[in-house]
Amino acid sequence: MTSPVPYYISRKQAQDFLTKFTKALESPDSNPLLFQIYGFGGVGKTTLTKKLKEMHEPQADFAEVSFGLTAGIETPLKLMVKLYELLPKPTGLLRTDILSKPDPFITLYEQYEETFYKLKTEPVQGKSVDTEQQNTVKDWLELGTGMLLATGAAYFGDSATALSLGLDAAVKTGGMLSDAPQAIKSSKERMQELLQKHPATRNNKELQELMLEPIPKLTHAFAQALIQKAHKQKQSIVLILDTYEKAPSDIDTWLWQYLLEDTTLKSYRVRIVVAGRRSLLEKESWRKLQQDRDLIYEQKLDEFSKEQTKEYLQHISITKSGDIQKIYNATKGLPYYLNWIKREKEANRDIDFSRGNQAITNLLLQGLSTQQKQIVQLAACCRWFDRSLIEYLMQKKGIDFATGACANSNCFDWLTKCDFVEFVQGRYRLDDVARDIFRLSFCQDDKTRFRETHELLAKYFEQWANQEVALDSPEPEKYENADWRQCTAEFIYHALFARRDEGQREFIYHLFASRYMKQLEVVMIPFAAVVTELAVENYRLLPDSTERFLKNIKLGFLFSWMILANDPAKYEINYQDGTGPSKEEIEAALRHCFTQVDFLKDGLGKYAGLLYKSLRSHPNQRKDLLLRAIEQAEFISTNTHPESSSRLFSNIGNLLYELKEYKEALANYDKAIEIKDDLLEAWSNRGNVLDDLERYEEALASVDKAIALQNDYPQVWLNRGVMLGNLERYEEALASFDKAIALQNDYLKAWLNRGAMLGNLECYEEALASFDKAIEIQNDYPEALYYRASLLLSLKRYDEALSSLNKALNIIPNEPDFLSDRSLNLSFLGLYDEALANIKEALKLQPDYPLWWANQGIVLARAGRYQEAIASCGKAIELKPDDESGYYGKACCYSLQGNIELAIENLQKAININSFRCRREAKTNPDFDSIREDARFQALL
Asked: Which NCBIfam families does this one have (predicted)?
C-alpha cells in the first residue's frame, strides 16, 4: 500500500475531482469513464493522483504509468501490455478459475505475437524470406502502419482526423513498374496479399483480420479482460496515465477512438485517470467524443491561494506572517515549490527570503555556489545524463570534475543527490518542472552560452554515434544499429537548439534518410521532445527560425511516413468524419523541407531527398533531380552492402522509367545488376524498359533471368507474356498469362492480357470470357470494359461494344481513350455527329496527341467527308512524324475511298513504324474490307 501523502492541502478543485471519482467507482454506468487533471508548472497533479490511490486502494486495483518515465509504453500495444502487467495478479487459484474462460487479452496477444514472428521468419514458399515479404511485414506491423493509421484513426496536432489513406497508385520504391495495380500498391494491400498466401494465416480468416487490424481487436480484448478481471476480483480497476503531455499521438488516438469510444468500459468497474499539462478537450477529436458520448470529467488545478499556502506552511512549522508572505510572493502558491521548501526545512537548511519577491529560480538555487549553479544549468540542458556526459561537460566548460561542485563529491555524484534530480530508466535527469525553470533561466541569463552548451552536447552525441558505427561506414550499418540511432536522435535534438540553419538541415537530412531506411525514430524522438517542450508557457529556447521551421513542417512531418515516398498525383487522403488537413496542406508543409535539399551534405539523406523532391516536381525538373541522385548513389554505394547499393540505382531507374527516359533508366538497372546480379526487380524492370525500346528479344531474356531467380512471382510471368505477345509468340504468351493466373487467381491484369492474347489467336469467345472474369474481379475497372468493347468492335458487335464503353465512361467520364473508341463505335453505327462530338472532346483533353487526330480522320472518312479526313490524318503526321497513327488513319481513309494505291502506300509506312499494332488491327478492321483480297494488302499482313 502506498504511504499516505503528507501535508495534503485540500482545494475545492481537488475535492470536487475526488468526490466525482468516488461516485464513478460506486455507480459506474451513470458517471464518466475518464477523469483528467491538468495544469502547468507543478500544481500538484501527481500528488492528487497519489491521494486518489490512497483513498481507494482498499476497493480498487491500480496500474500506473508515466510517459517519459515508464519504459516500453511508446505504442498502443506496448502500453496495453504494460498496464496489464502492472495490475495485481490473483492471490489464489480456485476450481472456478481453472474452469473459467481463458484471459481474452493474453490469449489474443500471444496469438498475435506468434503469428507476427512467423510472418517475419517463415517464407510463403521456398527456403528463405524474400525482401518483399520482409518489407511488407516491416511496413505494416513493425512500423505501425497496420496499427492506427491504416484502420482510419490518426490524430495530428490539434486537428483530429480519422485517416484512411488510399495509396493505390503510390510509388513503391524498388517495385516493378510494368503493372501499376500490382507493383504500386499500398502497404495494406501488400499485407492482405501476404496474409492470404502465408501458411500461418492463409486458411484462417479471423487471424488475417487480426494481423491486418491488430489495434481495434486487441483493444476490445484488453477491455474485455479488464471487465472480466474486475468481476472476478470484485475490485474496481483504475488505469493512471501520468505526464500525458508526453504521450505519442498514436497513444492519444488509441485512447479516445478505441478504448473510450469503441468499448463498453463505461458500464463496468473500470476507470481511467489522465494527468497532464493541457486539457484533452483542447483537441477537436476529444471535444467531439465528449459531445457525442459524455465520457470525460476534467478538472484544472491552479496554484494554491494565499490561505492555502498559509495552511500548507503552518503544517511544516512556518508560522510567521512575514515569512509566509515572502514565500507566497516567491512561489506563487505552486505546490512543487512549496514542497521544495518543505524538503529544505526537513534537511535543516536555511532559506533566505530577505529579498522579498525573489525569482523562483534563485530560490531553488539558493545556497549553491556560483559554480554549483552553473553545473545545474548545464545538466538542465541534457534530456538525461550519466557520469560520462557530466564529466565531458565539466571538462569543456573548465570545471574540475572531481572538486568543482564540492570538496567531498565529484560533480556527477553531487548532482544525483539534488532533490530535483530523478533516476528513470537507468539514467538521471532533472524533473520536468526543475528542468523547465533552469533551462529557461540559463537561456535568459546568457543565450550565447546556452547555445554553446547545446553545441557541445550535439558534438558529444555525434562522436558517440561515430564510436558505435564509424563515420565512413555504409549507411545501412548506421541505421540498422539501435545505439547509433539513439545517439543520432540525441545529436539532432541538441543541434536544433544550437545550430540554427545547420540544425534544421541535420533534421531534414535524417528525416529523408530515416524514411528511406524505415527507421523513423531517429527524427521522431527529437521532434516529439521539442514539440512537447514547446507546449510549456513562455518557452523561448529554440532559435526563432528553428521554431518557425518546426511549426511549418509539423503537418508534413506527421504524415511523412506514409506519403513522403509517394507521388502526390497518385495518392488521395480521405477522412471518415470528413475533417482533417487536405493533401495540399500536407504537401505545402513538406515543401519547407524540400527547399533545403540543395544545401544538405552528401549522403543518403540527400539521395532520398532528391528522389522525394523529384516526385513533387515538374517533369522537366524531375530528370535533373534524378541525375543528381545518381551522383549521390555513386557516393553512397559500397561493395560490402550489395543489396542496398543495388537498390539505390534500381530506385532511380524506376522513376526515370516513369518519365519515359528509357535509356537512362536502362543504364541504372544495368548498374544495379552490376552491383548485385540477382536483384529480381532490376531484371524484371530492365525487361520492361527494353520492351518499351522495342528490343523484344533482349527484354524476354531479361525477364527470363528474373524468373530464374524467382519463378513464383505472378507479375514477372505477366511481363513475360506481354513481351512474348510483342514478338507475336501468342501461344507462349498465353501460357505465361495462365501461369500468372495459376499463382494468383484474382490477378486482374493477367486476365485482361489473357483476353487480349486470345483475341490475337482469334479465340473470341474465350477472350470475352477472360474479360468477363476481369470484370467479375473488379466490376468498376474501366480498362476491362474498354478491352471488352475493343474485342466486340472487332467482332462487329457494335451495340454491345458501345454498351461496354458507356459503362467505362460512367466510371471515367473524361478519359480520352474511351471517348475516342466510343467515337469509332458510334461511327460504325452511322451516328457520325455524336461520334465527332466524342472525338472532339478527346482532342480538347489532349490536343497534341496524334492518335486522336487520326481517329477523327477515320470517323470523317466513314461519314464520307474525305477531304477533311485526310487533313485530320495529316495533322497527326505533322504533330509526330515518327508515330504510325497518321499513316494508318490515311490508309483507312483511302481504302474507304477505294484508292488502293494510296491505301497500301500509307499502310506500308505505318507498318514500318509499328508493325505489330498495325498488322494486328488491319486484320480485322472493316475499313480495309474493300482491299482485303488484294495480294499487296495480304502481303503486308
From this structure: TPR_END_plus
Give pLDDT tens digits for 663-676. 999 999 999 999 99
Q: How far apart are the first and last CA of the chain?
A: 94
What does the chain come to in residues? Answer: 941
Within a domain: 393: no
C-alpha grid cell, residue 120 = 517475419
Query: Does any domain span residue 650?
Result: no
DSSP state at residue 406: B
Using CA atoms, how far apart are residues 699 and 688, in angstroms rounded to an integer?
7
CB atoms within 10 A of CB 578: 8
Residue (of 198, 184, 226, 221) closest to 141 by Cα position: 198
Residue 877 sits in a domain of what CATH number?
1.25.40.10
Read off the C-alpha cell for 709.
531467380
Q: Which of 852, 911, 922 is nearest to 880 (CA)?
A: 852
| 280 and 310 fall within a common domain | no
d(CA 490, CA 446): 23
By three-state DSSP, how is residue 446 classified? Answer: coil
Who contacts 404 (Cβ-Cβ below 8 Å, separation ≥6)? 371, 375, 394, 410, 411
295 with 322, same domain?
A: no
Is residue 750, in this structure, part of any structural domain at all? no
List C-alpha distances in Å: 290 to 22, 104, 157, 162: 21, 28, 18, 16
Count the domains in the chain. Answer: 3
Structure pTM? 0.77
The per-residue pLDDT for range 362-401, each reduced to its tens digit, is: 767 777 888 999 999 999 999 999 999 999 999 999 999 9
**DSSP code, position 151:** G
Strands 159-161 and 154-156: antiparallel
**Residue 555, CB-side half-sphere exposure with 13 Å CA sphere:** 18
DSSP 703: H
Domain containing residue 252: 11-88+228-300
Question: In Å, what is the CA distance from 860 to each residue of 724, 834, 903?
Answer: 36, 12, 16
Q: Is 60 helix (H, G, I), strand (E, B) or coil?
A: strand
Contact 860, 871 (CB under 8 A): no
